[in-house]
Design brief:
It holds the Pfam family DUF1015. This is DUF1015 domain-containing protein. InterPro entries: UCP033563. The protein has 422 residues and is α+β, with helices and mostly antiparallel strands. 34% of the residues lie in helices and 23% in strands. Strand 16 (298-302) and strand 17 form a beta hairpin. It is globular.
Amino acid sequence: MAIPELPSSDGLVLRPFRGVRFAVDDLAAVTSPPYDLISQEDVQTLLDAHPNNVVRLILPGADQHRYAEAHDTLLAWLGSGTLVADVLPALYVYEQSGPGVLLRGLIGDLGLSDPVKGIVLPHEDVLPGPVADRLALMRATEGNLEPIFLLYEGEGGAASLLVDDVASTRAPLVEVRTDDGITHRLWALTESAELDAVAAELRGHQALIADGHHRYATYLALQHDYHTEGRGPGPWDFGLALLVDSTTYPPDLKAIHRVIPGLPLQEAVARARGAWQVHDFTDVDEALEALSSAEGPAFVLAGEDGVSHLLTDPDPVQVEHAMPASRSLRWKSLATSILSEFLLPKVWGLQDDEESVRIVHHDAHLAVKMAHRTLGTAVIVPPLKVEDVLAIAAGGERVPRKSTSFGPKPRTGLILRTFATD
């Protein structure tokens, strides 16, 4: 295996690689959503869908042997021809399309860089538990099993023009429709002139991590560990990523809600009344509609059948006292900052961590159902604004964990990357 050069410090590097792809008849049945969007119920559904579903690699189980199991499964699938590496290194044009959805970008080997260099910008904090989990999996499998999602302001430049031209004029390498109604297509770019044009375009740009903060932190941790162990430059200096020009394909930014098991709704509301204006509703949908038009920080609390409460107008003195003094005014104004620094710890005596608070992406009604089942409280959070996230990241700050859900997210299982074939 040739030793790759370290990524450039002059800007974004997206390098061609030999994609590893499933060679099965029903490609849709072996794909999945990203690992952190898959519930336990979803795992079984995916396992039942196909014996080679990628969930066997990205969520291999719960016992102490799960990472070795993923390693063995990956080797077995590569040995049997279930997974096959492409012959030529390529950048892959990737398209998602469906009702109200059109996204195009490039999948490749992202050159890793420390966030302090300002090339790849995180905007969200990470927790050590998920990083440790993904690190053990990456070490065991020696590869990247699903791409992270990056945005850059390409202003419709050469790379975006090439992506659109390829998607509009060439037959795809892969075309599959998944059960969510989205069609996914891939094209391989292998011509040196096209690859050089992309490289030249990206030089000098920076990118925002839209989705995959824990995986990017894992990329950096693995790189550090391997260098410390004396491995030197190698494929661990890069990570699998989808890069999208946000000016051509603006992202969809959705909210991530919280569920607090064991905190009865009426107790949560009673405690909130000392610091918030509380508006009572007998219909959840009416409360959600009121939340969408509320000015300033606001949340919906729900859990019991048909009962919900809109929180607005928090006491500014209490909020300011709860906020870290070092944070910017923009950061302090975020709904998720107020949630994590004031509502959860000061009003309810809780921390926004994995043990106390459960996460529900996008679906407010699902969060309400979960709260009802756990005799708890659903906290419906309004989505942040893209411009706030970008400004905070550019200023070197990070929003609280699980503040954003950018989409549409790349489908897992369409293309993988292994160090042995890189």
